[in-house]
């Protein structure tokens, strides 16, 4: 990779870190509500992965999705506006933090039902196979998402039909408060054995290691060798969500993982090889903070979604007499509250 | 215009739409190898005619539907067959939290043009294999739900469902697969969300769908002999629910019986009765009655199954009771 | 008699029943380690107090409930916590085709004494995490369904549910966990299947449960100021459904509004309205009205979530409309 | 094993074979309706398994359950009466062929939702662990039942909590009309690898091989070594159910498997070792046919279940005001049809 690309990886990780810290502030200021799952510590996973994909490869992830959207190039303002629940957000404030989306960039969204998005990802891979467009699907999930039925159903089928998909576990070793050994009986990588699926273990705190692993398995998929499984070992610095007091993990463990911080580690490596200077690092920090300032500003000024948009896109507009149906479906008591909501 | 079976009408709809659009694919359990094409024979021959586009799958309904949702997101138009409606429960989360939510939750950026074909019905198959979840499907914003009662409706509605850009649950019926009716040879479509008069009459309105529309027709013949003239409204689509004909009919008859196959409590019949009494309060000379299945897990024994399911005689009895009683 | 929260009332019920019966065990996701005991704190401290009997499980609702069914068959009395009601859909087949069917299908040879505790509710959690399936649970023969609205009811009904020999779905509510109410220090039980007057009045009957019983109470205060005297019937148990008090009340008020939180079409409110118009036809001076949630996947945006959910003001508006309109 | 026990294994297999052939006749005579899944060819699996278990070990199987009930000692008359849908059946005609049960013999029933009974079996194993009663659970399933989510959820959890359970696949190599290689991408035994579960492959056409395998893994479970997985390779001679024309399997394959028939093979082995005589074999055949004649006769004369029993056991009788609720739950139009049905 050339210097510029390497520096760009660094910059993207810093962007995610700064964006997440600011999101936490905005949550404290009650600009953001509901569940807010931050990506601090896991930045190298999304950034390394996206750097190895083509622009038209598909990405499907869980609710811990800010880093993925930002790494894929989604405008930070649109992401922050979504967290604020504003019209300028990636879903106009409908999905919120857990359901960012950017279909133009083949980012098919964050999903909040554990394991629920795995079959969808296999389905997208089927579409790639159907259209013979050489696309590869990356499906990211947490370690706690490997014990539910859809994990089995989706992986088993992907192998059976040789679908071009990469199942990537962002193994931060906790599912909310439940430690890995409490929810799983076998080492993560062994979970691929039952599907005879090609599997690798990857250092998720090393952006280049993630990038290289994705290159290898994406290649396999593009060449018709079918699905792969990656156990990407990482760690989240903060609680599960902003609602989590994080009393269950011991501080020493967290401190230890912070020693392996993907951002500082990568900065040091670049400095060693003279691929970046302290001055550039400072400049990037400033540049990124400016981007996030602008994002917050955009979100603050983005209006609430209009009330009369509520029924839009429950269904395609093409539906015959959905108006009639709508008027039957729609409760009388709120007629006043909605200007002229249509289905 | 030839008489064909409901089964054949469905197959023709599938064939025509597969010929029309190369992105229409079908998958499900035992739809290729088993008995030449499907547990109930709807897909017989299609695998040969459309190589690679009709596939047997593992037994994993959550994947059949979930992978269908993903494929639809990616531009394929899957028609997923679930062997019987009972097995949709295994995929319930995929239907409710995924298929139905995508378009609205993602603000129109994602669409899910898929059809889930599955039969209601019974046949001495006991409690886990003789259920009816019409009311549950009809409760879900984002889903469209269709339940044809005739070969004509079956073909026209299935073609429309396959072309529809929303997820459609298409409820067929084991007891109707073999029934015959006239179906035009040429292409035709029936819009979703439009109910249909299956019989005109002046004394009492029956609001129904699926197998019970057929049973209601039988009851109407019996009642005709007794001087009771029944009007039958077949909803055809369960979501969106079109009650306009039912309301029009009640203005004339002032009496209505809702006829459904499933369990009564919190069944779809309850919604229909509740909406009708709300919108036709002053037209009603009698409370809206409901004919429904008994609220027990379906027993295997012949006499118990017969007692649990509603048939034409139950419909006739309910209508007689309504016509006799003074309010 | 002390004022305690709904959350504390539930915990006391769990503790008392675990002390009473060593075969009562609790399992669920994050009920031990996370935040000292549960995503919503109901089980805080119980793991320490009852070693080995309160366990964190993998995230796999189909197993949490399915293994609960098997354990109950084997003589254990599991109380399974599903973090929120939205995730019961992953286990839907286990609930409908297994928990609910066993006793009847096996002719009484097998019983399933288990409780599935799970909260309804919202909180800017968007479309897959803000749902209400009350109507679906209430549709299932073999299940009992409970939905308390006060700390007093929560404790008495949960204790009864744990002692009940049938599978009970116990619907708590995120918005009620922090609410306070008087709860006796001594032991008491509340039978399942008995509705309760939460307010006496003469002008109009509100039939409701859960969070909407509380919202209805607020609406009643507002309406009192306007000279409208509301009677509130809290169903408390959704299956079996006890409409005896509602019918008694309507004889007096001649008007009823059914108030529910979930989607209107094919919601439980429809069943209540349909049954009441059937059984109280001549007592009614107006059609039975329904207050319900709007039929869209729940949006995250504050204003849209607020518009989608029903609150006291919606109840008051519906009552006013009913009292003003002439029929 | 002593001569008598060996001969008894033989007799049980013959009983199942004769019973199933007679069931087919009764189906043809329309005495039996709905789905009828016969056990011909798989007799050694149930007989060998049960012979290795204690009377209080628990058994949970799928809808192909006649052989299991008979092997466990359930009265053949009660089984046939259940297929007829009569009061004398194991569930009084409520469950039919797919839902035989005999709780006194710890046979917890046949289940008809593919994969649905696996969590129940794990739950029974939890109960055994809870009560420390040293019981072992045998959970039988078909090869086609290993691709659905509950397979994963149940096995994963059983391993995690070290439950005393044996997951046994009766691998007859077809799921209805779907051949093994069409529904599975890996050899069956490999499906245990993802759970690090002790696994064995067993010749399901050899009753003693099955018996020995069960002895080994039941021992492990009783000694706290947790769950096991058995791939028991067998074959069904008839179609999936009586509704199956069985056009998809080629006749040669079926003929080849019939060469390995578990009954004749075992008879030959016993004859070789002089543990049985031709005369005894004939006597057993006659004795078994008499048993099945009696079973059919019992079923023919067993009455239909009374209509007014319909609501019995929807709920426990203890329920407060279930009468009231009952009257509300019960549709008006059938009041006449039911004498005095109570909930
Ligand atoms: C089916 C389902 N069950 C439970 C939950 C509640 N829940 C949300 S996140 C979570 C933990 C997931 O942990 P993991 O998969 O490791 O992902 P991470 O948050 O660590 O990235 C749980 C239990 C859910 N969203 N969906
Ligand atoms: C969840 C579910 N999906 C589909 C079916 C329909 N079905 C019944 S048996 C069967 C095949 C099962 O094959 P296998 O597991 O190999 O068992 P076998 O009949 O060979 O013993 C299918 C698809 C079902 N009963 N349950
Ligand atoms: Mg994790
Ligand atoms: Mg098989």
Structural account:
The complex is a heterotetramer, with two copies of chain A (343 residues) and two copies of chain B (327 residues). Helix content of chain A is 44%, strand content 11%. The N and C termini of chain A lie far apart (50 Å). In chain A, strands 2-1-3-4-8-7 form a six-stranded parallel beta sheet, with helices on both faces. A two-stranded antiparallel sheet of chain A has the order 5-6. Chain A has 343 residues and is an alpha/beta fold. In chain A, a hairpin with a 2-residue loop joins strand 5 and strand 6. Chain A has twelve helices and eight strands. In chain B, helix 7 links the parallel strand 6 and strand 7. The longest helix of chain B is centred in the N-terminal third of the chain and has 15 residues. Chains A and B meet through strand 2, helix 5, helix 6 and helix 12 of A and helix 3, helix 4 and helix 5 of B. Bound molecules: thiamine diphosphate (TPP) (2 copies) and magnesium ion (MG) (2 copies). One magnesium ion binds next to strand 5 of chain D.
Rounded average pLDDT of chain B: 97
Share of residues in helices of chain B: 25-40%
Secondary structural class of chain B: alpha/beta
Strand order of the largest sheet of chain A: 2-1-3-4-8-7
User: What separation lies between the terminal Cα atoms of chain B?
Assistant: 47 Å
Tally of DSSP helical segments of chain A: 12
The major beta sheet of chain B can be summarized as: 7 strands, mixed
Largest interface: A-C, 54 and 49 residues
Oligomer: heterotetramer
Can you tell me the overall shape of chain A? Answer: globular
Question: How would you concisely characterize the structure shown here?
Answer:
With 343 residues, chain A is of the alpha/beta class. Chain A is built from 12 helices and 8 strands. Helices cover 36% and strands 20% of the residues of chain B.
